[in-house]
Amino acid sequence: MSSKIQPANGKLGVMVVGMGAVATTLIAGVEAVRKGLAKPIGSLSQMGSIRLGKRTDGKSPLIKDFAPLASLDDVVFTGWDIFPENMYEAAKHAQVLDNDQLRTIQPYLESIEPMPAVFDQHYVKRLNGTHVKKGKSKCDLAQQVRSDIQAFKEKCERVVMIWTGSTEIFLEPTPIHDNIEAFEKALVNDDPAIAPSQIYAYAALKEGIPFANGAPNLTVDLPCMIELSKQTGAPICGKDFKTGQTFMKTVLAPAFKARMLGLSGWYSTNILGNRDGEVLDDPESFKTKEESKLGVLEYILQPSLHPDLYKDIFHKVRINYYPPRGDNKEGWDNIDIFGWLGYPMQIKVDFLCRDSILAAPLALDLVLFLDLAKRSPELSHLGIQEWLSFYFKSPQTAPGLYPEHDLFIQLMKLKNTLRHIMGEDLITHLGLEYYD
Ligand SMILES: NC(=O)c1ccc[n+]([C@@H]2O[C@H](COP(=O)([O-])OP(=O)(O)OC[C@H]3O[C@@H](n4cnc5c(N)ncnc54)[C@H](O)[C@@H]3O)[C@@H](O)[C@H]2O)c1
Asked: How many structural domains does the chain have?
């Protein structure tokens, strides 16, 4: 093990903002795995392996045995929600996991109750919370969240925060986001450009703890937050878990481009019936999601480099709230491609997925990898952790740098970062040495 990375001793506290479908599926899942009742399927950190050295060396340890990640046995959860239900009630409400399965870990789930949240209905129109903090100003609310973090720090060795709360209305950066000083002034002045997610993120970064964003909200992709993240050595990464349709898109689009097949249109539509679907039924929240989903094709296909293939793509994304399906989303894609001499072809994808089953392992990996980044001297003061792009619809990159959306480039980047911080040779796939 690289001697520079601090070991993962003691408890890792995970503070979850928004304890709904994804959060309860994460928390219940971690407990079920700890008790030997289920496997952490879908989690790269728990099930993935990493090749070290040459293909002929036969060395491919599990990632969790290679990098000094926190053990699941050391993970402790707390969090905030605008509803006071404990994790057992919230998981039943979310209807993702079977009641029989939930009953096997009922006392544990009942022991976790959300703290009152920072919430303002202006930013999530379809929700009306009762379990909310009261404060004189946004600055006061940020102080209250910092107090919650400080109290949790007393019980744990290290802490990370992850947003699995609802999608907020579409916001764009304003001058108050230009630097920390301007942002802090705006907190005092209750500036409407500061959404609740920014208040949590600010509190986390101020306390020096990493922050991950599972939703597409404008939260840490702001100059003031990048500055704060670097200043306090609290890593940040991208936004909006890459789970269903966008996951598929970032697998298929690189394949078309690899073969130099053209694309004329990509129509994506979904039906979704959980609370997330209800929130996204509001046009202002949907716009935030839409922006996050639309970006990927442009970056992967690079129409400016390949105008004959990708100049005029018609790309559309719809999400329809349809209660009967609950968390079991169905996503359809109609893809119009063209090949040799311009002859058209079509591909249809019908993904009958389970939203939170796909998202929970990503949330787990993110908290474990962010904790590792915090303990790694090479990563902790970089601010943005581009190597975690793998998990996001909207990866975060240094200003001016275009993001990598191709899932397999993202995976290579993630694994090479682990090799790098652990002092192992990077794998380039050149492979000439086998033929010397
Ligand atoms: N499941 C997926 O595949 C997936 C993929 C990408 C992104 N996401 C995003 O993850 C988020 C969570 O999804 P979900 O299915 O768990 O939704 P959910 O509605 O079940 O849970 C969100 C929870 O956040 C709470 N909340 C809202 N605002 C809050 C605030 N200010 N403070 C504290 N709590 C707050 C809500 O009360 C709710 O319990 C959504 O933004 C969703 O768009 C989910």
From this structure: 2
The ligand 1 atom nearest the CA atom of 24: 16
Reading phi first (left if > 0) and then psi (alpha if -120 to 50, else beta), residue 67 is in beta
Give yes or no: residues 263 and 235 share one domain: no
CATH code of 336's domain = 3.30.360.10
Ligand 1 centroid to residue 7 C-alpha, Å: 32
250 falls within a domain:
yes
Q: What are the tens digits of pLDDT across the range 397-436?
A: 999 999 999 999 999 999 999 999 999 999 998 889 899 8
Q: 325: which 2 tokens?
A: 């399906």
Residues 162 and 28 grouped into a single domain = yes
Task: Give this prediction's pTM.
Answer: 0.96
Asked if residue 226 has its Cβ within 6 Å of ligand 1, the reply is: no
Encoded tokens for 425 = 């040779």
Examine the domain organization and report whether 255 and 180 are in the same domain: no
H helix intervals, 207-282? 223-232, 245-258, 275-280
